Structures are given as structure tokens and as C-alpha cells.
Amino acid sequence: MTSTEKASVCVLGTGLIGGSLLRAAVGAGYDAWGYNRSPAGAQAAQADGFDVTEELPTALTRAAAADALIVLAVPMPAVGHLLSAVATFAPDCDLTDVVSVKAPVAEAVRKEGLSARYVGGHPMAGTAESGWGATDSDLFLDAVWAVGVDEGTHVEPWTRVVRLALDCGSVVVPVVAAEHDRAVARISHLPHVLAEALALAGASGGELALGLAAGSFRDGTRVAGTAPDLVRAICEPNSDALLAVLEETLTVLGAARDSLRANNSLADLVAAGHDARQRYETARRWEITDIRPGDHNWLANLRDAGQRGGVITRPA
Fold first, then answer.
1. pLDDT digit string (tens) for 186-222?
2. Dihedrals phi, psi of 141, to nearest 5 degrees
3. What is the crossing angle of helices 103-111 and 79-89, to 10°?
4. DSSP symbol at 68
5. Tell me: the pLDDT tens digits for 57-106?
6. Is 181-282 a domain of CATH 3.40.980.10?
7. Which of 8, 292, 309 is nearest to 171 (CA)?
8. Would you put residue 13 in left (φ > 0), alpha (ψ -120 to 50) or beta?
9. 9-175+284-311: which CATH topology?
10. Within 115-176, where are the H helices?
């Protein structure tokens, strides 16, 4: 592609993330269409003027003819079925995804023989809502979009994925799959688990507790409003990384419990938590400008830059 060309985009799954991506891509001038398994979801998208079909072979045959970038936008349990269809109808298309874990997707891609044209992706955006009705073309504005730089990644599909993320309004963080999955276990999947536990604690206090609940309870339980099946589909495929950080967190909470029992004090936890929050508030991104895709060690250099807070804000 030249710097002005935009690849056609085929989005498989038009729920919150996939549907918002379809809206954003069309808004950015891409020739984009989608597939949705649910007739109601496909028809809702069609009613809003978007080209979405219920026929997977139709969407993929069109993708093959247009040399489209295919985007997997379904929960992890549905990825295998879609990849099998991609291997049958559009095996030569560039391929990415927006699934919340990367290593399991990469392994599923490898099993279908599609690794050469695959680049993992994960926009760090969303709401507690789901389905086409929750989609928003501005969902990715100023969001972080993780893009894979794993060994064996090829320049051409990587460039297309980065271009799409930037055109949707995001900044790109280069990351390898295993490190991505360990990181999101901490900042995405663990918060889901804690939100569910906090919601349960509040409800267990009866109507009085719920009647007194205000901002801290509302904010802390926001993602507990997500559909349970979707939460499981987000968290369970990353169980190893989630288990590790959950054990770490239980240790921290156990120490706080013991301190409260012995000394009536939460000082250590509160001070450490406050400092950690300040680190988040003051963290600053910096722009990666000196690494060109395809140059010597470009993948390793981008991985290192991403680990140090670097982001990509414009096409190379």
C-alpha cells in the first residue's frame, strides 16, 4: 500500500467492539463490511445503513476478492469456528483480531495454518453494554490499541493493522502476546473478578447497604454489569495469568486483614495503593519515531519501546 491507500476491511462479529470498529472504519473512509451470526444483530446493523450479512461464506468470499484485512471480533470461544472458515474461503487475506487475549488466538491461528498473515490486536476500550445497539464510532478515540510484534510478524499485514488502529483514533502500543496477556490480567481481567466480588459483598448487605451505596461502589462495580457469559469469555482464556495475579492480590488482602485484626490499621495497604494510583495518574507516554517496520531488529526494538511506555501515533 501507499501512504494514502486504505485496505478494505471485513469485520467478523458486530457486537460492541466489532460493530464500533465497523462504524469507525466506515467513518474513516474504508470500504468495510461485516458478518454477524445473530440475524437480529445483522439486521440492526443493516437498519443503520451498514453492510452486514448473516452469511459467513459470503463475507469471506468478498474479502478474498478484495484482498481485505479480516478482523476477528468475537469472544475467544467462537474464534476457532471463524478461523476454520477463513482458512477455507480467504486463506490469503491479512488477518487480525480484537480479542482480549493474544496467545490463545495466536495458537488457534497457527493450527489453521494462517500465521504468516496474522497480526494480533486488542483495543483497550469498551463499556459494560454489548450488542450492535451499544456500538459507537468514537469508542476508540484516544484509546490504546495493542498490536503484536511477535517473532515472525510480517511488515505488510502489521502496517495495515497499525494504520486501521490509528485511523480509528487510537494510539498503538507494540507488544508480544505473552506479555500482553500477563499485563491485561492485571489491569482488565482482575478488575472484572474484583468487581463481581464487590457487587456480591454489597448485595449481601441487603437493601440498607444498597440504598447507601454511592460513587465508590458504583465505580468499583461498573464492569460487573457486563453480561456474565461475556465476562467468562474475556477472563477464562487467560486463566494462567489471571490465577497468578489473583494469588498475588489475595496475599495483599490477607496481609491487610491481618494488620486490621492485629493493629486496627490499614496503613500499609492504603499507602501502597495510593502510591500505585499516583504512578498511574502520572504515567506519560512517549512517541516512537525512530523505528521503521522492516528494519533490522524492528520487532525486538518495538517490543522494547512498548515495554518502556512508547506508543505509535502516526503511520511509519
1. 999 999 999 999 999 999 999 999 999 999 999 999 9
2. -60, 125
3. 40
4. P
5. 999 999 999 999 999 999 999 999 999 999 999 999 999 999 999 999 99
6. no
7. 309
8. left
9. Rossmann fold (3.40.50)
10. 155-167
